[in-house]
Amino acid sequence: MRFGILLTSVHDATTDPRQQVREHEELVRTSEELGFDLMVCGQHFLGSELRYFQPVPWLTHMGGVAPSMRTATGIVLLSMVNPVEIAEQMATLDVLTDGRAVFGVGLGYSPHEFAAFGVEKGSKVKRFEESLALVRRLWSGEVVDFEGEFFSVSGAQPSVRPLQQGGIPVWIGGQAAGAVKRAARLGDAWYTPPFPTHTELRGLRELFLTTRAEAGLPLDGDFPVRRELLIAPSRAAGLEAALERYRARYEVYKKWGLSGENTPVEDGAELRADIEDRFILGTAAECVDQLGQLGEDIGMTHFVYKPHWPGLSHRDAMAQLEEFGSQVLPELAS
């Protein structure tokens, strides 16, 4: 098992943006020292509650801070952005990180983002699939003639291409059955978000593998997984710590319109059970056991860890990262 660090946003515009730069620099520098293999950065537009800097320039800079780590977009909203532009941006990232880029992509879900780009939600799947096909053609090195419903290219042979032979690996995110099947058919891996329960995750993994097998595609590729994880003196203490962080983050997801995310946010038995169904919680040893068992069950190749939460101080997040990196990561990496 290998390990990634998620460079997520916990600030809005009231925080000096240079603070966010410094915090993420410290995060990736420490992660590299602890043995993390990967840094992951997502994409949102027009967010007022949380400030998302755009992933390709952000990862380009952070890749220079921790040059041994791979860089992954997790995820680019491919149903909204222009495929020609993102193909060349990702190729540039791959060159600048010496062939260590991963292209994580997904549909997106926020109505205000689709509206800003003039994209009707009903067209997002077609736009996504067409865009991905064009991106891969533009990375091929061959002359590209492409006539799609949304994008067209004639006689193009871009000089801006990835360093990795055959193109950049494509990880497709999503939590619904349709998204998992799409990842199996069109991607090199399914990049799972943290929203499915542990049981749901196992079922969706089986769906991914079945779909790959039916299409005659390899079954031994990467499987990067995001789970929320909190180290605490006990599982009960971890649950209490998770309650506050959970509400702060998932209220934003709900406000942004994440489809299918009907999780409770009011304290009570239902919320606590929901957290336990999705989180890895407890002492470092308990987290090793839980994460190790889940990894064996589903064939996880990468665990993507998120130490930052809204309302949690950077110092406390770094303490969690160092405890994870010194007590959990070595046990599972070996």
TrEMBL record:
The keyword Oxidoreductase appears for this protein: yes
> Which superkingdom heads the taxonomic lineage of this protein's source?
Bacteria
Name the Gene Ontology molecular function terms of this record.
alkanesulfonate monooxygenase activity
Q: Which GO terms describe its biological process?
A: alkanesulfonate catabolic process
Q: Which UniProt keywords apply?
A: Flavoprotein, FMN, Monooxygenase, Oxidoreductase
Q: Does the keyword Membrane apply?
A: no
Luciferase-like domain segment(s): 1-301
What is this protein's name? Answer: LLM class flavin-dependent oxidoreductase
State the organism's lineage: Bacteria, Bacillati, Actinomycetota, Actinomycetes, Propionibacteriales
